[in-house]
Write a structure and sequence with these properties.
Strand content: 5-15%
Organism: Streptomyces lonarensis
Helix content: 40-55%
InterPro entries: NAD(P)-bd_dom_sf, SDR_fam
Shape: globular
Strand order of the largest sheet: 3-2-1-4-5-6-7
CATH class: Alpha Beta
GO molecular function, one term: oxidoreductase activity
Order of helices and strands: EHEHEHEHEHEHHE
Keywords: Oxidoreductase
Mean pLDDT: 95
Oligomer: single chain
Family: Belongs to the short-chain dehydrogenases/reductases (SDR) family.
CATH topology: Rossmann fold
Largest sheet: 7 strands, parallel
Distance between the termini: 28 Å
Length: 244
């Protein structure tokens, strides 16, 4: 399992912090070549340097604001200048918005939230699809959220975040159907709130992972590795998780 990603070329959006950073560090450690982006170029470069500092040289950093179509196009163009294919696109980026009261957020926050999560994901797939179609093992992984599950109401997230996540879920659903004839697998994860320890800290090794504990970033990374490591006849569409 440890070498499932050796030589695979992986694009990760919003990898400047939190789970995107975790994924970039962990997938690089398993032999992947990483093309990571963040809205803040300095954050992207910081994670790139952290990964290089661990002896993994095949990592590239790009700026990308998922709210801006031109920025997404530039990111895809920048990656295509470096590589002729992408094997895995991870749609990790989506702005979170808090607040169970619709009136609590201003119009700009609502627009940004839906633009980054919904439109940003659609455009990222659109612009990276030509590179994915040049791969023999093309996979698209989208970090949705329990908020994208029909009937879910347990999060304190704002309605606009629910809207963005529901859009990601619907997009992934039809994409899975339509891209299968071309051999592209579309995999969605619907985690509840989870514990994301710093993968470069001691806590990463010591995080409790018992039945009564919250879901961990470690387990989410392993779900991604499991799905993309399957033989190509195995299309795992989604991972759903019990909430504690």
């Amino acid at each position: 399992m440890h070498h499932v990603l050796t030589g695979r070329r992986v694009v990760i959006t919003s990898a400047g912090r939190d789970f995107g950073r975790t994924l970039a560090i962990e997938l690089a450690g398993r032999g992947a070549e990483i093309f990571l982006s963040a809205r803040d170029p300095a954050a992207a470069e910081r994670v790139r340097d952290e990964i290089r500092g661990r002896g993994h040289g095949a990592v590239h950093a790009f700026p990308c604001d998922l709210r801006d179509p031109g920025s997404i196009r530039d990111f895809a163009r920048g990656v295509s200048d470096v590589t002729d294919r992408v094997d895995l696109l991870v749609n990790n980026g989506a702005r979170y918005l808090d607040g169970a009261d619709l009136l609590s957020a201003d119009d700009a926050d609502i627009t940004d939230t839906i633009a980054s999560g919904a439109t940003g994901t659609v455009l990222a797939v659109k612009h990276f699809l030509p590179l994915l179609l040049r791969s023999e093992t093309p996979d698209i992984v989208t970090m949705v959220s329990t908020c994208g599950t029909a009937g879910h109401h347990r999060s304190e997230a704002h309605d606009a975040f629910y809207a963005a996540k529901s859009a990601q879920a619907g997009f992934s659903e039809i994409l899975s159907k339509r891209l299968r004839p071309q051999g592209v697998r579309v995999i969605s994860l619907y985690p509840p709130d989870f514990d994301n320890a710093d993968p470069l800290s001691e806590e990463w090794q010591n995080t409790p992972r018992r039945a009564e504990d919250a879901l961990t970033a470690q387990s989410l990374v392993e779900c991604v590795l499991f799905a993309v490591g399957q033989p190509r006849d195995c299309f795992i569409k989604s991972f759903h998780f019990e909430q504690v």
